[in-house]
């Protein structure tokens, strides 16, 4: 009797286990359905619409295969840990981690770019802007399956509002990058820091001192005109600086206008703001801008030199025109002008 009861209990146990397995499989199937359903919902959220210089573009969220060509974006992407498949290393500052990374293919420079490199890496997204903006259509044709976005900021004098464009352009492009790479909090913090740096630099300027901005390259000092160019020009609008000198048909070229140092000195500026172009692109044997300024006899009797009222843009500004660079520049302006 005991043996019979044992067999019966054993059979019941087997059926119970079998029933549990079937139930587990059924639940697993339901979970798969739910999971699949969630995955499908998630898939619908893996793209977003952003607005670039040409209109509305659908882009992937957190793309893994990224090509970046815009000097204003490199530092932001690097700080956020975004890996690149290709970049124009020839126009990037040597300290950028992308330059040393051999896995990042080199597109060259904007004058003779090897655009075929972009096609070879088959990117999900290509970030265009600044020096490469003129290649936008070519790149779209080259990689028709990629999202190509143009974050170019128009700070030309023809835009009428170069200062406003610079500020809004930085904010918009930073927020856009935050949306694409799921770095919204980081993007918002950058914009907040940018706004604060602008406010402090505005407050530090007394509204009357005259400002002379120059670009130093190859040992020469060139005039950087108000409202023109990518760095100093728009800042006259943002901070309402009083220019020491204005000329008609000023150049927006990165090397500045060819005006004699004597003519610059005759304006006797209260402040001289300097962009050292060679510091960003040349070897260490280039003469530093500070040495060029200090060794210019014509400038020594100006108020700016005699009072030590000079501000030098961050050394990598010419090749690293990021929002971080401008935050640092504005902070330097605020600290120096307030002294």
Automatic annotation (TrEMBL):
<keyword id="KW-0732">Signal</keyword>
<dbReference type="GO" id="GO:0030288">
    <property type="term" value="C:outer membrane-bounded periplasmic space"/>
</dbReference>
<dbReference type="GO" id="GO:0005886">
    <property type="term" value="C:plasma membrane"/>
</dbReference>
<feature type="signal peptide">
    <location>
        <begin position="1"/>
        <end position="23"/>
    </location>
</feature>
<dbReference type="GO" id="GO:1901678">
    <property type="term" value="P:iron coordination entity transport"/>
</dbReference>
<dbReference type="InterPro" id="IPR033870">
    <property type="entry name" value="FatB"/>
</dbReference>
<protein>
    <submittedName>
        <fullName>Iron complex transport system substrate-binding protein</fullName>
    </submittedName>
</protein>
<dbReference type="Pfam" id="PF01497">
    <property type="entry name" value="Peripla_BP_2"/>
</dbReference>
<dbReference type="InterPro" id="IPR051313">
    <property type="entry name" value="Bact_iron-sidero_bind"/>
</dbReference>
<feature type="domain" description="Fe/B12 periplasmic-binding">
    <location>
        <begin position="65"/>
        <end position="339"/>
    </location>
</feature>
<dbReference type="InterPro" id="IPR002491">
    <property type="entry name" value="ABC_transptr_periplasmic_BD"/>
</dbReference>
<keyword id="KW-0813">Transport</keyword>
<comment type="similarity">
    <text>Belongs to the bacterial solute-binding protein 8 family.</text>
</comment>
